[in-house]
Amino acid sequence: MSSQRGNVSRTRPQCHQNATAFKNNKFDSSSHTKKLNTKVHDAVCQRCKDVLEWRIKYKKYKSLTQTKKCVKCQQKTIKDAYHIICKPCACKLELCAKCGKKEEIVVPGDKGPENTDSASASRDREVEEADRLNLGEEDDGGHDDDEVDLHERT
Fold it and tell me: What DSSP state is assigned to residue 41?
């Protein structure tokens, strides 16, 4: 494309086109990459959510190593990269945690520090235990039928 001012129309197609889409976990199967791929971006507006998802998709996302200071409450409570406002302040003031604008929040964050990976992991474990208990009850019913079949055959 020419650098001439006002010349914005391109007359030929793109020269090099990718045959396949970029995959951020193709050569990197580390736990960090897996955690980033499953990360839920809450307390942010749609535009910021799209930006964060793009960063993760193309391996441009860099996690925080230390907590950052919130611009509203001045406490070191920010644990997510690229955010400027902590989740409790963002929920209370209804602001985007990344850009700080009063936009519509796509996925609202929980009000408080209990919104952590360990809390979601404990909820997952509770769900798995409940599923196991439900499956165990079904299995017991199935085993009784098998025992009845065995007694009828003999």
Answer: -
